[in-house]
Amino acid sequence: GIMRDEFDKIIVNFKELYKVKEKKTFSNEQMKAIALSYKDLLRENRVKFEERLFEQLIQAIIFVFQSWYNERAQIYRKKLQIAEEWGTAVIVQEMVFGNINSESGTGVIFTKVPFEKSSEIVLYGDFSRRSQGEDIVSGLVHTLPVSEFQNRKSPRLRGNSLEEQFPEIYQELLRLAKELVYKRGYEHQEIEFTFKSKSKKDLYILQTRNYNLQDKETIPVFTDPAIHTHLAGSGIGIGRGAMNGIVAFDTEDLEILAEKYPQKNKILIRPDTVPDDIAMIFECDGLLTARGGVTSHAAVTAAQLGKTCIVNCRQLVVIEKEKRCIINKKTEFRTGDEIAIDAHLGNIYKGNYPISSEQLNLF
Q: Quick one: how far is CA 289 from the chain centroid?
């Protein structure tokens, strides 16, 4: 019953106090101070924090069952015509902390390159050191690539990949992917994992499910070579190629622009890709975010719905209250401004440009 923004204010204040950019770089004592501040917020709002471990587990199970009826779950079911009678399930399993030290982490991978026809196994996804699974799937952090293939595919967005930093973990994930798909005959998979050291014995799989993003043989592409002179920034693309549109920042923008410009695509710009935004994701045509990876739940949902997305644009600063954003400290967008995004290349442009279809190259 407490807004997420209230917790965000606390951690932002601590980041400014300790001059820290990312939460994973806080010291143990600093994290303890933040946790106690969170507890103070709960106490101020008369929310009881359960101290007994077994009771915590029972409460967590209850929360999962209750989540079936929260607002975003009901919106999701209504839009995708999922029966309420299905209900949800809870699995209780042992897990490790992905945030226990600098050699621990968590991530999500696809066993193939998203939106490309090749059936070859290539690990493609997001991971983060000193994080828990929720950090990745909630879309609240800047992620790093899983494979060196991703670095080659997006050279401007190079990051220290899991393959480079944790080769034993990477090779074990690759072995498991090959066993599932090549030996056991499963479809390509989406796999969530956590590790507490560089050793493969400390790799734990949280869940694996069938890859269900729709692959494309052709994609829309921009045809005007001059477009690159209007490049504003770049991120990680997920979706179906190029899209022209106009900028929206919230539900009000989407409603007004839909009425005023019914023929134009609405591209929603957000600081992150949290599941709370699911109602807006259904109403927009494209999505651009500053944080979150290709495997965050909201980004995956948007892609499944046929939206064109660019996530993890680190140069993007969103000032929500003023309904404007700035990319690379120089290109500004406000509600209704023309914007063009290319999910295949991960590029963001000022303005709108001609588009045609092109056969998709696999690699």
A: 9
- Chain-centroid distance of CA 230 in Å reads 26
Helix (H, G, I), strand (E, B) or coil at 35: helix
Q: Give, as one character, the DSSP assignment of residue 214.
A: P
Ramachandran class of 328: left when φ > 0, alpha when ψ lies in -120 to 50, beta otherwise: left
pLDDT digits (tens, 9 = 90+) for 79-133: 888 999 999 999 898 888 898 888 999 999 999 988 777 789 999 999 999 888 7
More confident residue, 345 or 62: 62
Contacts of residue 53, defined as CB under 8 A and 6 or more positions apart, other chains included, come to none
Pairing outcome for strands 124-129 and 347-350: unpaired
Spatial separation of the C-alpha atoms in residues 274 and 288, rounded to whole Å: 12
pTM of the model: 0.82
Minimal CA–CA distance to 74: which of 233, 327, 279? 279
Residues composing the chain: 363
Q: Which two tokens stand for residue 308?
A: 């064109």
Query: What is the percent of the chain where pLDDT is above 90?
Result: 61
Q: Are strands 308-311 and 236-238 parallel, antiparallel or unpaired?
A: antiparallel
What residues contact 338, with CB distance under 8 A and at least 6 apart?
A: 244, 245, 246, 247, 350, 351, 352
Q: Which residues contact 195 (CB under 8 A, 6 or more apart)?
A: 96, 98, 104, 105, 106, 166, 169, 202, 203, 204
pLDDT at 157: 64
Do 230 and 351 form a contact (C-beta atoms < 8 A)? Answer: yes
With vertex at residue 135, the alpha carbon angle to CA 56 and CA 167, rounded to the nearest 5 degrees, is 115
What is the sign, positive or negative, of the torsion defined by CA atoms of 8, 42, 273, 125?
A: positive
